[in-house]
Amino acid sequence: MRVFCAADYGRASRVAANIISAQVIMKPDCVLGLATGSTPIGTYEELVRRYEQGDLDFSKVHSINLDEYRGLSPENDQSYRYFMNTHLFDFINIDKKNTYVPDGLEPDKEKACRDYEEIIKAHGGVDLQILGLGHNGHIGFNEPGSVFEKETHCVTLAENTREANARFFKSMDEVPTEAYTMGIGSIMRARKIVVIVTGESKREIVKKAFLGPVTPEVPASILQLHSDVILVGDEPALTDFPR
Ligand code: GLP
Questions:
Q1: Is a pLDDT exceeding 90 seen at residue 71?
Q2: Is the CB of residue 38 below 6 angstroms from any atom belonging to ligand 1?
Q3: Most buried of 22, 58, 102, 169, CB within 10 angstroms?
Q4: CB count, 10 Å around CB of 36?
């Protein structure tokens, strides 16, 4: 694993954007695995800026997002489809037909998950997967548990995840209880993974995930076994890492 420690959030976002830019330049028809959450917003802003300057072309890129709340429509401003449109896709020249987010409105859980795995396989897997890190160690919505669930599946969200994400909703009652998420196996098959971690609040979980034992209790810890992971963070999140 390579670690890039930047001084602050803005610089960490630019490092992550550098890696994604290099991927898009080296392989214009690449498959990007994308994440939501507040952490990658700065990275997406930076990609938009570079696109506007004429430095990046997303016309052949395909994207596959990690997860989506079950029950939310793409128009719902808390859905991850809405997030991706309004933070990235609406501002770059990616063809929206080439962007995939699990279908939150598909009531048949098995079908939703099967269809998404098919999409990932049909695209030959993900070239570069971007990940954030939940405060309980989740990646995508793979919550702490007794097993590493491999494929796309439907999860019941942990209460602390619902509480952490409640800040985006009008009330706690509106926070969905379930989500569709790529599994650990789907994530681990990505050829390259970039994990972005910023802020003091991530310090403890980053330490557990990358310097502690590999355990399903900390889902991100499995990333220690991937052969090409880049951890991009800022000083407050990476305080415990050797320089
Ligand atoms: C959400 C998402 C994750 C994300 C995590 C961290 O629940 N499903 O993909 O990485 O939370 O979010 P943040 O970046 O806002 O801390």
A1: yes
A2: yes
A3: 102
A4: 25
